[in-house]
Amino acid sequence: MISFSPTEEQQMIASMVKQFASDEMRKIYRECDENGEIPDSVIDTAWKMGLISSNIPEDYGGFGGEHSAITGSLIAEELAWGDLSMTMHILCPALFSYPVLEMGTETQRKKYLPLVCDEKYKAATAALIEPHFGFDPYSLLTIARPDGNEYVLNGEKCYVPLAADADFLLVYAAENGNSQGFIIEKGTKGLEIGEREKNMGIKALATYELSLKSCRVPKENRLGGPKGCDFNRIINCSRVALSAMAVGVAKAAFEYSRDYAKERVAFGEPIASRQAIAFMLAEMAIEIDATRLMTWEAAWKLDRKEEATKEASLVKAYADDMAIMVTDRAVQILGGHGYVREHPVELWLRNGRGFVTFDGMAMV
Amino acid sequence: MIDFEPTPEQKEAIKIAHEFAKEQFRPVSHYYDEHEHESPQELIDKTWEKRYEGTLALGLDVTAALRIEELCWGDAGLFLCIPGPGLGGAAIFASGTKEQLSRFLGRFNEGGPKWGAMAMTEPGCGSDTSAITATAVRDNNEWVLNGEKIFVTYGKRALEDSDGLVVVWATVDKSAGRAGMKSFVLPAKTPGARVEKLEKKLGIRASDTATIILDNCRIPFDNILGSPEVKKVDKSETKGFKGAMATFDATRPIIAAQAIGVGRAALDFVKETLENEGIKIRYGVPRQKLTALERDVMEMEANYKAAKLLTLRALWMMSQLQPNSLESSMAKAKAGLAVTKITQKAVEIMGPLGYSRKHLLEKWMRDGKINDIFEGTGQINMLVTARRVLNYSRDQLK
C-alpha cells in the first residue's frame, strides 16, 4: 500500500543519526573543511552507532539487521545534513562491504565482512572514477586481463576516498568490456597510491589518485567469483545514496538561508517578506521534498531487488540539479555574506556542485 | 513502512480507469475540443450509470488520484464533464453538518446525472478570495444572495442542466473582511440565479465554465455551511475563510492529479513516437554522452515523477489525518508547472506532429495549462508554500 511513513525502527535510527549530526558534526564541520582533516574521535563515535555493521549478518560478525536501501537513504540524508565530507568518510567502508555482502562469494564474505564489524573503524574503499573527460562507469579505461590464475590490472583511478588508509580496495575495471570489481589488498605490487587530491569541495575528505601498473590479483579476488557482480545494481545503489546525500546538503543550505532571510532586514522588513526571496525558498523546499520522495522510490525498488536503473538515474540527475540550484540560491539569498567563509553556505555550494562527479563514492 | 506499491484494488482501479479513458474519452477527444459547448451526452449518461462501479467514484484520496491521472490521460476536458458532487460536494463534505451532508449529497445517489459546482471567483477577484463582493443578507428564514460569479466549472450543468447544486461564497458583513466570508448551498433552478454566459477557452473546452448572476436569489437559512456568526476577534484567521482553505487542502492535490494525467499523455506520446522511430532513451548513460533529446525526455519524466509523488504524499497525509496544507500547495504548484513544461516541451520536440491539430499533443498543451491556474494559480500556491516554510502569516508575507 502506498505509504510515506518510515517504520518505527527507521525513524529511531534516523533521529539518532540526526542527533549525532547536530551534536557532533555541526560543531566542527567548518573547521574540518578549512583544515582538511576530520578528528578520529568523531569517526569513532559515528562508528559506534553501527550504521554499517548492523546490516551485516551475525555469521560474519554483524548485528544481523536487514540491509535496506531505504534505511540507508534516511541515514545518508541525515548525515549529509551534518556534513558531506564526514558522511563520506564515515560510510566509506560501505563502498567495499556492501558489494561484498550482496554479491561476494561465500569465501569473500567470510574473509572481508568481519573487518567492517570490528569495534574500531577501519577504512576500506572502492575505486571507480577515472581522471579523464568522458568518464563512463560502463566503459572503463582501467583494464583487467586474465592471466593464468590471476588478473592483471592496468589503469588510473581518482577520487578514491581514504585510499592511503584502506587495507582493502574494491577496484572496478573493464573485463572484456564489462565493468567488474576486483579486491586488492594494501601493498599489492603495482598498486600505487598517489598524492592526496585537492578538490573544490569535500575538502575534509581525504581522496586520492591511484595507478595500477601490471597489478596482479588472484582470480578468487574477482567480486562474486566466476559469476561476477551485478555492476548495474552497484551503480544504482550509489546513485540512490548520492541522491539522499544531495537532499541532506540541500536541506542544510535551505534551512540556513531561510533563517537568515527572516532575520536580515532591508528596507524596513525582513527580506523573507519579499516574494522575490520567499518564492526562491518555496521552490527550494518543493524540490528538496520531490527529490527525497524520488530517492525513496528508487531505494524501494532496490530493496525489492527490482531493476531500478530508470528510477535511480532519473533521481540522480534530478538531485544533481536540485543540489546546485538550492545551494546556489542559499548563497544568493545571503548575498555578499553568502560569499564569505564566515557563513557555511559557500561550503554547501562547493559540496553541492560535486554530486554530478561523485559516481560510486557512496553506497546504500 | 515506505511503500510505493498500489494495493490490488488500486491496480484494478487504475486499469479500469485507463481502459475507460482509452475507449470512451480518446476517440471523441478531438471532436469535443473542436465543438466547444456541445454536451457529450452519451458519455455523461454512461459515466453516471457507472458511478458505483468504482471507476468514477471519485473521492479525495490516493486511489482517486490514481484514477484521475488515468482519466485525464484520456481527456482532461471530458473528465470535467463527469457528473458527481465535485468541488461543491467537497466543500459541503469539509464543513457541512451531518444533516446538510444527507440533505445535499443524497441527490448524487439518485435520479439522473447531477453536478456540484463551486462559485468563488468574481470579475474583481480571483486568487484573493477574501475580496469577495457577492453578498448574503439574512431575511427571516432565508438568505438573499446578490452578485456575479465567474469561472464556475460545471456551472451550467450544476445550476441549469441538472438537479445539482452550487456552493456560493459570499460575504455576510463586508466590514468584517475574511471573517464575514461564508459559503452557501444554492440548489439548481433556484429563482434569481441564472447562467449568463459560457466562456470560450484555450483548452478543456468540453468543460463548461459559467458566469452566474445572483439577483435577489433566496435560499433557506440552513443552507449556510458552518456558523452564520461573524467573529471579529482575529481578522486574519477566521473560520469561514479557513473553511474555504481547508477545502483547498483536499482539492489541490486532486487538481494536481489531473495535471499529472495530462502530462503523462504527452510524455507517452513522445516516447511512443520516438520508439517507432527507433530512438530509445538510454537511462543510466553519463550526462555528457546523452543527446539533448534524451536529456529533455528524462527531465520531463523526472518532473512527472516529482509531481506525482508530491501529490500522492499530500493525499496520503490527509488519509492519515495529518495537516497537509503545505504539502497540498507544494503538489499543486509543482504539478501545474510540471504539466506546463512537459506539454510545451513535447510540442517542441515533436515539431510538425506537435503543432498540428491532427494529433492531440497541442490540445494537451492547451488543456494542461489550466492546472497551473484554477484552484489557485501556481503563484498562489508558491505563496502558500512560502508562508508555511517561513511560518509567516499573510500579513508578514503578502
Could you please describe the fold and organization of this structure?
The complex is a heterodimer of chains A (364) and B (398). With 364 residues, chain A is of the alpha+beta class. Chain A has helices at 8-35, 40-48, 69-82, 84-90, 92-103, 106-112, 231-263, 275-303, 309-334, 336-339, 345-352; strands at residues 124-127, 143-147, 150-161, 168-175, 178-185, 191-196, 207-218, 265-266, 269-270. Chain A folds into 3 domains: 8-117, Acyl-CoA dehydrogenase/oxidase, N-terminal domain (Butyryl-Coa Dehydrogenase, subunit A, domain 1), CATH 1.10.540; 124-227, Beta Barrel (Butyryl-CoA Dehydrogenase, subunit A, domain 2); 231-356, Butyryl-CoA Dehydrogenase, subunit A, domain 3. Chain A contains 11 helices and 9 strands. In chain A, the strands form 3 sheets. Chain A has a 4-stranded antiparallel β-sheet, with no helix packed on it. In chain A, a hairpin with a 2-residue loop joins strand 4 (168-175) and strand 5. Helix content of chain B is 49%, strand content 14%. Chain B has helices at residues 8-34, 41-49, 62-74, 76-79, 86-95, 98-105, 155-161, 239-276, 292-319, 325-350, 352-355, 361-368, 378-390; strands at residues 116-119, 135-139, 142-153, 165-171, 181-187, 193-198, 209-220, 224-225. Chain B has a 4-stranded mixed β-sheet, sandwiched between helices. In chain B, strands 2-3-7-6 form a 4-stranded antiparallel β-sheet, covered by helices on one side. The radius of gyration of chain B is 21 Å and the shape is globular. The mean pLDDT of chain B is 92. The interface between A and B is large, with 49 and 46 residues.
List keywords for this structure.
heterodimer; A: 364 residues; alpha+beta; Butyryl-CoA Dehydrogenase, subunit A, domain 2; Butyryl-CoA Dehydrogenase, subunit A, domain 3; 3 domains; B: 398 residues; Butyryl-Coa Dehydrogenase, subunit A, domain 1; 13 helices; 8 strands; globular
